[in-house]
Amino acid sequence: MSATSKATAKKITPLKHGFSDALITWYKQNKRDLPWRHTSDPYALWLSEIMLQQTQVNTVIDYYHRFLNTFPTITDLAKADEDKVLKLWEGLGYYSRCRNLHKSAKIIVDQHNGVFPNTFDDVLALPGIGRSTAGAILTFAFAQRQPILDGNVKRDWARLFNYHEDIATKPAETQFWAWSQQFIDECSDPYAFNQGIMELGATICLPKQPRCLVCPVNSFCDSFKAKTQHDLPVKKKKVPVPHYDIAVGVIWNKKKETVFIQKRPDEGLLGGLWEFPGGKQEKNEALEDTVAREIKEELGITVRVDEKIMHVKHAYSHFKITLHAYHCQYIKGKAVPKAATAIKWVALNDLSTFAFPKANKKVLDMLLDAKN
Ligand code: SF4
């Protein structure tokens, strides 16, 4: 039994029988004590699954508690103002997760009387919930037998089955889902199996340094036997990530009492968050000129660009930026936003009640530090 590269999914061979029992036994004895492992509330489990996408467990724990303390029920979340919800998410990144959570809460209240649905189709129909997340919620909250396939599980399968094809392809997806389905169908405890297969990837079958010698399922692992575990999973080469210089202005009103902020459109990157206005530096343009030009183009107001406050580097999933922030003085014009959905003049001390993207938040923290 070894690697497969065919589009048709291969079955688990007899050599893998016993794997799920070994995994479940190990999970029950070694699982990490995580807050969402003490609840069967589908709302809390849904929240944890969404927060854990692209984010480390240690980062998520505080956010998870704060979110549930502020919005203890789906109805509380559905009724909340979007700015308040985004503020609780500030710093976690991937903000569409938060907006979809909020939208889904409203749908659950409108269409399911505020009760989280328990059928696969109803769960999958909620914004921001894909097949694996739906499977996880239904297994953990409703004791259903549903397969899952997140990044950890893909890595587990690629190594356990010594799978040498690019894991980002359709045939790989088909094959991995088939293995997830076959194991969940035959295992004795779907909850422990799904938790265990994720736990294996998160704590033992690590991306760079798999801990094969202490791995509870190394006797079932084809890549361990073939000594190919460090070559797996195979991922197609990443294209280089572009970098942009972004220049923004902290625009002060004439009395220097308030500064100008704007709200990004709901859809797209950092949707619904507040920010200082500005934009991308053009070729051969001085950063100060970028600030004045962008503010004029986007808002129709004239500012004087004064001293630089700071610059911040930040990486998004598909590009990197250096954000350069400048003090600006409002000169003239009535602000009419082209893209922003709201604008405000806000006292410096009140700015921290708004949700900002991480790089803008660093500028704000610097302004507050300088003032105090
Ligand atoms: Fe991963 Fe190594 Fe365990 Fe195989 S033996 S599942 S490569 S940790």
Ordered list of secondary-structure elements with their pairings:
Layout (H helix, E strand, L loop, with lengths): L18 H12 L11 H11 L4 H14 L3 H6 L2 H8 L6 H17 L7 H5 L6 H12 L8 H10 L9 H17 L3 H14 L18 H5 L16 E10 L5 E6 L10 E2 L2 E3 L6 H13 L2 E14 L4 E13 L9 E6 L10 H14 L1
The protein binds iron/sulfur cluster (SF4).
Iron/sulfur cluster (SF4) binds next to α9 and α12.
Distance between the termini: 66 Å
| Ligand names | iron/sulfur cluster
Strand content: 5-15%
The secondary-structure class comes to alpha+beta
**Can you write the helix and strand succession as a string?**
HHHHHHHHHHHHEEEEHEEEH
Radius of gyration: 24 Å
Mean pLDDT: 94
Strand runs, count: 7
Alpha plus pi helix count = 14
Q: Low-confidence spans: pLDDT under 50, at least 5 residues? A: 1-7
* Lateral arrangement of strands in the main beta sheet: 4-1-6-5
Task: Report the principal-axis shape.
Answer: elongated
Largest sheet: 4 strands, mixed
Helix coverage percent: 40-55%
Can you describe what's shown?
Residues 1-7 have low confidence and may be disordered. It is elongated, with a radius of gyration of 24 Å. The strands form 2 sheets. Strands 4-1-6-5 form a 4-stranded mixed sheet, with helices on both faces. Helix 1 (19-30) crosses helix 11 (190-203) and helix 9 packs across helix 11 (190-203). Strand 5 (302-315) and strand 6 (320-332) form a beta hairpin. The longest helix is centred in the first third of the chain and has 17 residues, at 96-112. It is of the alpha+beta class. The protein has 14 helices and 7 strands. The structure holds iron/sulfur cluster. Iron/sulfur cluster binds next to helix 9 and helix 12.
